[in-house]
Design brief:
- The complex is a heterodimer.
- Chain A is mainly β.
- Chain A is built from no helices and eleven strands.
- In chain A, β9 and β10 (about 100) form a beta hairpin.
- Chain A is globular, with a radius of gyration of 13 Å.
- Chain A starts with a strand and ends with a strand.
- Chain B is an all-beta fold.
- Chain B has strands at about 5, 10-15, 20-25, 30-40, 45-50, 55-60, 65-70, 75-80, 85-95, 105, 110.
- In chain B, the strands form two sheets. In chain B, strands 2, 4, 5, 6, 9, 10 and 11 form a seven-stranded mixed beta sheet that branches. Chain B has a four-stranded antiparallel beta sheet with strand order 1-3-8-7, with no helix packed on it.
- The radius of gyration of chain B is 13 Å and the shape is globular.
- Chain B starts with a strand and ends with a strand.
- In chain B, about 40% of the residues are buried.
- The mean pLDDT of chain B is about 90.
- Classes of the chains: A mainly beta, B mainly beta.
- The interface of A and B includes residues 49, 103 and 104 of A.
């Protein structure tokens, strides 16, 4: 049972435009969400997080939106840059469980 | 600042051979530690996590095991590797009672032949 889903395995966006990466979850106990960026043969790098008490968190070009009623979160990258090309993972955890459930990732390609 | 190390970076092992991957964290005390595997075309699968020395929780039954002999050391082992053990193994840490964000090491690419 995949509790965290990233239904788009890949996404291509033109440089300077907005990239929107989506993530859905099924467990209503999840209350903390993270986005990671991963280059090939490297460990994931933390990008941005959001807790369930918020519906938006912004850090520079990266904004994460959380819709609790829809059990959906999204990562917006504006403007997209070629260096943003990587695999993006969303992850979720429930308070006190120490466990993080990751999605299968979305490969973003930003075209110059 | 905190740093997480993993070694080796790459490993090629024959089927049936033993495995030992090591992960160490610097710059923090009593971290939560995690082992993940990323198989080709798949997401990150949590294998083990530890909230303290000698405390290991297993998420996926398989022929792998983990140990935490010291506060900032986490070891992933196998007595006999299978072909299906090939993948990219990632160690991560997080702060107990902190903001819960996990930070990953550089990973070990394991190829079992």
């Amino acid at each position: 049972d995949q509790q965290v889903k990233q239904n788009s395995p890949s996404l291509s966006v033109q440089e300077g435009r907005i990239s929107i990466l989506n993530c859905d979850y099924t467990n209503s106990m999840f209350d903390y969400f993270l986005w990671y960026k991963k280059y090939p043969a490297e460990g994931p790098t933390f990008l941005i997080s959001i807790s369930s008490i918020k519906d938006k968190n912004e850090d520079g070009r990266f904004t994460v939106f959380l819709n609790k009623s829809a059990k959906h979160l999204s990562l917006h990258i504006v403007p997209s840059q070629p260096g943003d090309s990587a695999v993006y993972f969303c992850a979720a955890s429930a308070m006190g469980t120490y466990k993080y459930i990751f999605g299968t990732g979305t490969r973003l390609k930003v075209l110059a | 600042s905190q740093t997480i190390h993993q070694w080796p970076a790459t490993l090629v092992q024959p089927v049936g051979s033993p495995l030992s991957l090591e992960c160490t964290v610097e710059g923090t005390s009593n971290p939560n530690l995690y082992w993940y595997r990323q198989a080709a075309g798949r997401g990150l699968q949590l294998l083990f996590y530890s909230v303290g020395i000698g405390q290991i929780s297993s998420e996926v039954p398989q022929n792998l095991s983990a140990s935490r002999p010291q506060d900032r050391q986490f070891i992933l082992s196998s007595k006999k590797l299978l072909l299906s053990d090939s993948g990219f193994y990632l160690c991560a840490w997080s702060v107990i009672g902190g903001e819960e964000t996990q930070y990953f090491g550089p990973g070990t690419r394991l190829l079992v032949l």
